[in-house]
Amino acid sequence: MNISTQPYSLAKNLSCSNCKQEYSITEINSYATCCNKPLVVDYDLLSAPPKSVLDLTEHTMWRYSVLLPVLSKQNIVSLGEGMTPIHHLNKMAREYGFDKLLMKDESFNPTGSFKARGISMAISKAKELGITKCIVPTAGNAGGALAAYCAKAGIKCTVVMPSQTPAVFKQECELYGADLILVDGLINDCAKKASEINNNNKYFDISTLKEPYRIEGKKTMGYEIAEQLNWQLPDVIIYPAGGGTGLIGIWKAFKEMKEMGWITCPLPRMIAVQSKNCAPILHALNDIENWKTMFTPMATVANGLAVPYPFGMDMMLQVLKESGGTSIAISEADIVSGVKEISKMEGLLISPEGAATWKALLQLRQQKIIAANETVLMLNTGSGYKYIDNLN
What's the pTM value of the predicted model, to 2 decimals? Predict the structure, then answer.
């Protein structure tokens, strides 16, 4: 695709999300070795231009290139990701007594999910840094996205995926030319296998928050939400959180916009939704010291929520604390019925992860954590068409 204007970036450096030690943005870095925590990209926000700088002819996430870490236009690897619609779910709002119910629909992205944002950014930066081989453990959608963007960039791709993942995700990776390796277990087992394969560091590991750039692609959801709502924000955002990159990224975007003066409204409460089969955030909120031993992770119809030991747990908990939010877990039966309800009422076939946010909203309303007169935005992270085999 054509990037209509020369992107430039206010990115300064990387820093440890824990101790703030700085790392170079022009060298290959994965995570902060000082604290064994994720790295984040820092920007010179004091030099940020007004939001009128946005190129309104660029209908992808790259309209925010000034606040993204790719430093040179020719390194952008894009398939048209971003600028996904926000649906007004008026029928459901009327039926269930909500004043304003919105859904940001990431199924419109290339490869059918929000993973396209983070992977476009990570592969663009990999190209800029001269990386030629990438590997990723995945629950499904990230593998397909990585395979597609690596194909576009001419980068060798290896995907490690749970064997029980629906066939469409496996076929997708193979069609894009990736090497696909199947593992019995969940994404944490795939991560172990990926580490074994990459014991000589031939590959750049694109694991969630084990590199600093996927979060920057995901944060563009936050910029879009603000822009699409005329630089106002909802009262509540309900997000299906597995590895948590999007939850953290959206919050990062809101804080950046606040610091630059692009928005002046209050920031929303952030709600992290998980499956009862795998709900580490909920356990960590209850017992931060012992959460890893408090549950037995199981597979879920919402593949993307089966992330039992997320590397970014501290960062997710910080978002929930800063925003005054919380976490909630939804049963498998409710997730499946949520997909069917939204399909029949609004004509949207969304992912099980997205449907979990709807069932979470109903429970939170019943618990009086969310009021009927609040503006609520749910995130649908992917296309339901890729999950049809899971729903039978």
Answer: 0.94
Q: What is the DSSP letter of 156?
A: E
Q: Which residues lie across from 375 on neighbouring strands? A: 100
| Structure tokens given for 213 | 């750039």
Q: How confident is the model at residue 1 (pLDDT cuts 50, 70, 90)?
A: very low
* Residue 31: DSSP 8-state: S
**The pLDDT value given to residue 35:** 97
Separation between Cα atoms, residue 278 and residue 295, nearest integer Å: 8
Asked if residue 30 lies in contact with residue 210, where contact means CB atoms within 8 angstroms, the answer is yes
What's the pLDDT tens digit per position in 334-369? Answer: 999 999 999 999 999 999 999 999 999 999 999 999
Higher local confidence (pLDDT), 47 or 370 = 370
Domain ranges of the chain: 86-112+214-391
- Residue 326: other Cβ atoms inside 10 A: 18
To the nearest 10°, report the CA torsion of 13, 16, 20, 22. -40
- Distance (Å, whole) CA 153 – CA 179: 16
Under CATH, to which class is 86-112+214-391 assigned? alpha beta
Quickly count: other Cβ atoms within 10 Å of residue 237's Cβ: 29
Q: Helix H segments across 29-166?
A: 90-96, 115-128, 141-153
DSSP H helices, the chain, are 90-96, 115-128, 141-153, 167-175, 187-197, 214-218, 220-228, 245-260, 280-286, 313-323, 332-346, 352-366, 388-391
Contacts (Cβ under 8 Å, ≥6 apart) of 84: 104, 105, 106, 107, 108, 109, 224
Rounded distance between C-alpha atoms, residue 330 and residue 279, angstroms: 9
133 torsion bin: left (phi>0), alpha (psi -120 to 50), beta (else) = beta
For 112-159, what is each residue's pLDDT tens digit?
A: 999 999 999 999 999 999 999 999 999 889 999 999 999 999 999 999
What is the distance, to the nearest Å, from the Cα of residue 293 to the centroid of all Cα atoms in its chain?
26
The closest alpha carbon to 281, from 318, 250, 332, belongs to: 318
Burial (CB < 10 A; 0-12, 13-18, 19+), residue 6, is: exposed
β-partners of residue 329 are: 274
